[in-house]
Amino acid sequence: MKKILLSIISATLIFNANAQDIALPDSSWSIHGENTFLINQSSFSNWAAGGENAFAANLMLNYDFNYKKDKWSWDNKVIMGYGLNKQKDRDWRKNDDQVSLNSLLGYKASEKWLYTFFADFKTQFTDGYIYDDAAGTKELISGAFAPAYLSFGPGMAYKESDNFHFNVSPAAARFVFVGDDYLSSIGAYGVNPGEKSRFEFGASFNGYYKREIVENITFENILKLYSNYLEDPQNVDVDYTANLLMKVNRFVTVNAGVQLIYDDNTMLPYEEDGVSGTRPALQVKQILGAGVTYKF
How far is CA 214 from CA 136, 172, 217, 218, 241, in A? Predict the structure, then answer.
């Protein structure tokens, strides 16, 4: 996993070195990017209150490739993140792992409304585990393309500005892929045991809102909802991300983020009162760190 993080950092540095030289063949295209490298560290020595040494490093890439000409627009966003943490007496473990590709083709219907066709793809880079430190074991729960989600469909979008817009698709197809043989065999992420994919058809909502609270402090919200008409449409899948971005100067930032996911097809292990099993549950991920951000 350390090699993965180093490879992403190297690729980012190479890309940034050439970013200023990008020549767009068509002025209708615009390209913007933001690369952030966060570090979080704590150490203790003869500390009466106790504590464990810990170190975490996260790399996050956020790129926009947008086209606009006459009544047509085509907005594309690429988000990638990977992070590792190390605690005393434990090996390196990941604390972030995401690949998200979003595309929205639009044709202007009125001043702020568009006819649209969207496509979203989401997966991760490496295997994920649940660790049992007492027993010294770990259990595989995810991997690259296990799961992977591909959604697409027609809809309507409202765009107030680049900082506030949403898209609604009442006829959205979604494929859930589980490429790992073991996870497929146990029916992970809602696929039938032994199968590698699952088809869903339903309604999709993607929303984005970003505002500057005070100077140099920005609050960003990303909300994704999906209801599967074919099975339990009342159980809406939720994916919400909130990011608080604090700019110290041109390059140094402090970032705090939380992501909440609920999917009733994702079964997670639990243990209560001596009883163990699996069930759907709210997934929560939090990241806080100071680091370097490069924008272009």
Answer: 47, 38, 5, 7, 20
What's the token pair of residue 64?
A: 């926009």
* CB-based contact 155:172 (threshold 8 Å): yes
Phi and psi at residue 109, to the nearest 5°:
-100, -35
Amino acid letter for position 247: K
Quote the Cα angle for 83-86-92, to 5°.
70
User: What type of residue sits at position 120?
Assistant: D
> Of 83, 194, 178, which is closest to residue 140 (Cα–Cα)?
178
Residue with tokens 């058809």: 201
What do you get for the CA distance between the two ends of the chain, in Å? 28
28-54, pLDDT tens digit by residue?
899 999 999 998 887 777 677 667 788
Sign of the alpha-carbon dihedral angle for 4, 97, 228, 151: negative
Q: Write the pLDDT tens digit of every residue in 71-89.
A: 999 999 999 999 999 987 7
Q: Are 55 and 91 in contact (CB under 8 A)?
A: no
Q: How many Å separate Cα 268 from the centre of its chain?
A: 19
Distance of alpha carbon 164 from alpha carbon 151, whole angstroms:
22
Strands 113-123 and 148-161: antiparallel
How far, in Å, CA of 67 to CA of 62, rounded? 17
Nearest CA-CA partner of 169 in 214, 227, 208: 227
Element (H, E) at 167: strand 164-177
Q: 33 is written with which tokens?
A: 């990017």
Quote the pLDDT of residue 118.
Answer: 98
Question: 106-126: per-residue pLDDT in tens?
Answer: 999 999 999 999 999 999 999
Q: How many CA atoms lie within 13 A of 177 on its CB side?
A: 12
CA distance 211 to 221: 9
